[in-house]
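Students often ask why inverse folding is considered easier than folding. One informal answer: many sequences map to the same fold, so there is more than one right answer. In these notes we will look at a single instance of the problem. The structure comes first.
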């Protein structure tokens, strides 16, 4: 993807960003919640839905000791109107760079279908300060390629 294409993707961040607690944010650091912005974002972007849902293996259990940076890639098809028929890509991983508690996790969510590499590049460009915070502590890796 070109730098301009990376900038144009609609992408959100879920996790800790400056204040305690896990929330969903747009790239302007504004909180996003489907209940307060109905029809603007799919319901699965609710923090209650995102928290720990996507950073686990398909069976829903953590792998080992919640290693940071081992990311899971998911394609999600929202069921709520007006998002029916759309596909969204999620990369999610255990992340204690914003807070030390067990179970801390982060996710980047983009409208459309993207590869792991594209999602990493989108997140790196659109959420540069968060990306710096995370990658100064760990390397983000695709769980499917880690032995």
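Output (designed amino acids):
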């Amino acid at each position: 993807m070109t730098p301009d294409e990376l900038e144009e993707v609609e992408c959100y961040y879920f996790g800790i960003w400056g204040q305690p607690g896990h929330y969903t944010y747009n790239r302007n650091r504004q909180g996003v919640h489907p209940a307060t912005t109905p029809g603007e974002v799919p319901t699965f972007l609710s923090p209650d839905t995102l928290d720990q849902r996507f950073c686990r293996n398909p069976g829903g259990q953590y792998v080992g000791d919640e290693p940071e940076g081992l990311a899971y890639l998911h394609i999600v098809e929202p069921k709520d109107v007006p998002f029916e028929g759309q596909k969204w890509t999620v990369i999610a991983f255990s992340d204690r760079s914003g807070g030390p508690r067990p179970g801390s996790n982060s996710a980047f969510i983009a409208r459309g279908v993207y590869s792991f590499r594209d999602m990493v590049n989108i997140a790196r460009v659109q959420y540069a300060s968060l990306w710096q915070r995370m990658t100064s502590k760990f390397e983000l890796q695709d769980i499917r390629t880690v032995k």
